[in-house]
Write a structure and sequence with these properties.
The chain has 172 residues and is an alpha/beta fold. The protein has a domain of 116 residues: Double Stranded RNA Binding Domain (2-Layer Sandwich). Helices cover 30% and strands 38% of the residues. The protein is built from 3 helices and 6 strands. β5 and β6 form a beta hairpin. The longest helix has 19 residues. The chain is elongated, with a radius of gyration of 22 Å.
């Protein structure tokens, strides 16, 4: 019985971790994405971690080339410019633990601790290079780990989720 509860607990924890990453996308519903075939990735804001910046760029290139897009070479004019932004912020969480009585059973104690959580946000904008019109935006946010390899996996997963249904299909 304990083994079954342990396995169920692990499954629930895994599900919660999987859903902790928040990914949103939006796009211009009137735009004809079939006219875009080549792209260039640019850094829109400098992160405090050049290695993660490079990994994110590589993830974007991999996802777009898997969709049939071609990365423009130096000196070529691409159809789309993909701009990559990264930012971090701190959020606070309160954890309160109760001990002793309470609820009318006698005196009890409550201890509250404040935790600082670092949250990273990845923003990817796709612009039509000719008109400079924003045609697609992807945004992902998740807690930042102390382990670089975990953060690299989170970025990779976020980029995959953003471009899962990309380019958007024409309505009709």
């Amino acid at each position: 019985m304990k083994l079954k509860l342990g396995i169920m607990g692990c499954l629930i924890l895994t599900a919660l971790i999987a859903y902790a990453q928040k990914v949103e996308t939006d796009y211009d519903h009137q735009y004809n994405f079939s006219q875009l075939h080549t792209f260039r990735v640019e850094l829109g804001s400098v992160w405090n971690n050049p290695l993660q910046q490079q990994r994110a760029k590589e993830d974007i290139v991999r996802e777009l080339t898997s969709k049939g897009w071609v990365e423009a070479q130096e000196g070529q004019h691409p159809d789309a410019v993909v701009v990559l932004h990264g930012a971090t912020q701190q959020e606070k969480s309160l954890d309160t633990w109760y001990s002793g009585g309470g609820w009318g059973w006698g005196p009890g104690m409550a201890t509250t601790t404040v935790n600082t959580i670092h949250v990273g946000t990845l923003l990817i904008d796709v612009f039509d290079a000719k008109s400079k019109q924003l045609v697609f935006r992807g945004k992902a946010s998740d807690d930042i780990s102390d382990k670089p390899e975990k953060n690299a996996k989170k970025i990779d997963k976020a980029v995959q989720k953003m471009f899962k249904n990309f380019p958007p299909k024409e309505k009709g």
